[in-house]
Write a structure and sequence with these properties.
By secondary structure, the chain is an alpha/beta fold. The chain has 15 helices and 15 strands.
């Protein structure tokens, strides 16, 4: 039984154009899954940090929602938010800023066909703000609930003129991605859909654009004439942390490569956009995705850490990968012949987010043989660390002081943490929540890009190679070395970026 539209909900104004500076327009923000882990760890602390930084709307309300069986009272939800901010936030829940934030919180339960408590909470929030505030819905719910929540928003009229943030994963293959996009587009047009990937909210992603396009030193080098290979490395030190039910149905490739690493590849490999705005940036990303060759299973290593099959809830004969490394080719004028090597996995030696661009090795014939030997096989590299807040390192070969010509390693480092005030940093979710309120889709994925990536992935999904074991605390299966030959993986060198 569907819920009829509720006429007492105020019609929303036309959505504002993007503004890079200042707070967004007045908003009612509705968090589906407000009592879940994502809201506790990221969304509630992030929203409070935005409020402390003066980046929330002048007037706002945050309405939490969950099924009625899990619904707290307003007072219980505020206590839950205080605990979440105290445990995971960068700002303590105290002082007048917290009091104002806490007063903006309320809760309204919602079940399919029984959404009246949520409708009442939204009506009350909008009446408290006055005027015509915008609505933003964040779907921090399991993927299986996406369609039912979107349908509820459409059936109740809540979706009219509103925006929606959808969490990953965006499908598990091409068919499911198309079906999910169709269900969303039946209620929200694409201009109001924000598919969130918190990796793209990191400061370092915007800094890649600044590094390339604001500096004449780098853009002329950003092509196959000067770059020999690119590596995107996102290892995780943690294991699956008890999430066997999710992980057995997803695996590392679907969870990390399609939704995270491929998105970073799109930003690294794109052509210069005509403007740093949503459509222009995403048009260039889409061109990269359409230039990607379909994945060759022979160029993919799937791994599984020793002990994974003993995890509670894991099939003792599981073939689910906890590690994936692959070689990707891009057939366009800028990147033809340049391999992109991607690696990610659980229970690895470190947790990092690093992109390395290897520059073509210059002719070293002029240097004595012993001078070349001391270089240790090193070449010039540009290393972009996407860890919060991140860094950029140019790795060089220079002459050691002394009477003979001996080459030595040297690094030129830009470090965000030591170069700017820490309070100016926004974490990934904070940045993206702010941009969604502003209406800027530049750092959010688009439906055609998502579907193209699943199309590229189809050969691997249809014929995956068997998983290979690797020891927890290692860098993955031994066979990954052959995958990148004649190059080498850069991440095991702990000197690649500063600590």
């Amino acid at each position: 039984m569907t819920q009829p539209p509720v006429p007492s909900l105020q019609p929303l104004p036309s959505l504002p154009s993007r503004s890079d500076d200042g707070p967004p327009a007045d908003h009612v923000i509705v968090l589906f899954g407000a009592t879940g882990d994502l809201a506790r760890r990221k969304l509630l602390p992030g929203l409070f940090h935005l409020a402390r930084a003066g980046l929330m709307p002048p007037r706002y309300r945050i309405v939490g929602t969950a099924p009625a069986a899990e619904a707290p009272t307003d007072a219980e939800f505020r206590a839950h938010a205080r605990q979440a901010v105290a445990e995971f936030g960068r700002s303590r829940p105290e002082g007048p800023e917290w009091e104002a934030f806490e007063a903006a919180l309320s809760f309204g339960a919602a079940d399919t066909g029984a959404a009246e408590p949520l409708l009442a909470a939204v009506r009350e929030a909008e009446a408290a703000l006055g005027g015509r505030p915008h609505r933003l819905f964040h779907l921090a719910v399991p993927p299986v609930a996406f369609r039912s929540v979107v349908a509820l928003l459409g059936d109740t009229g809540l979706a009219e003129g509103a925006r929606v943030i959808v969490e990953k994963p965006f499908g598990t293959d091409l068919a499911s991605a198309r079906a999910l996009n169709a269900a969303i587009h039946a209620v929200f047009d694409e201009s109001r859909v924000f598919r969130i990937d918190h990796f793209l909210g990191k400061e370092a992603v915007d800094n890649v654009l600044a590094l390339r396009f604001a500096n004449g030193l780098f853009e002329p080098l950003w092509n196959r004439e000067h770059i020999s290979h690119v590596q995107i490395d996102v290892p995780e030190h943690i294991d699956i942390q008890g999430r066997a039910r999710f992980f057995e149905g997803t695996g590392t490739f679907r969870d990390m490569v399609v939704t995270h690493l491929f998105q970073l590849l799109g930003f690294i490999a794109m052509e210069p956009p005509v403007a740093l705005e949503g459509d222009a940036l995403r048009d260039e990303q889409a061109k990269v995705f359409h230039s990607m060759r379909p994945l060759d299973p022979a160029h993919v290593v799937r791994g599984q850490y020793t002990g994974y099959r003993e995890e509670q809830g894991v099939d003792p004969a599981s073939d689910t990968e906890t590690f994936a490394a692959l070689r990707v080719g891009i057939d366009n004028w800028r990147w033809a012949g340049v391999p992109f090597h991607l690696r990610t996995g659980k229970a690895l030696a470190e947790g990092r987010h690093v992109v390395t661009l290897g520059l073509r090795e210059p002719v070293l014939r002029m240097f004595p043989l012993d001078a070349r030997a001391t270089a240790g096989g090193r070449s010039n590299e540009l290393v972009i660390d996407f860890g919060d807040p991140g860094s950029i390192t140019a790795r060089l070969l220079v002459k050691e002081p002394g009477p003979s010509m001996r080459l030595a390693d040297a690094d030129l480092v830009f470090n965000y943490r030591t170069s700017f005030a820490a309070q100016n940093f926004l974490e990934g979710y904070e940045h993206l929540l702010l941009e969604a309120m502003r209406g800027n889709q530049a750092l959010f994925t688009r439906s055609d890009g998502v579907e193209r990536l699943w199309e590229v992935a189809a050969p691997l999904l249809d014929a995956p190679p068997p998983v290979e074991p690797y020891a927890p605390g290692s860098w993955g299966p031994d066979s990954i070395e052959a995958l990148v030959a004649p190059y080498r993986w850069h991440l095991p060198d702990r000197r690649a970026t500063p600590s």
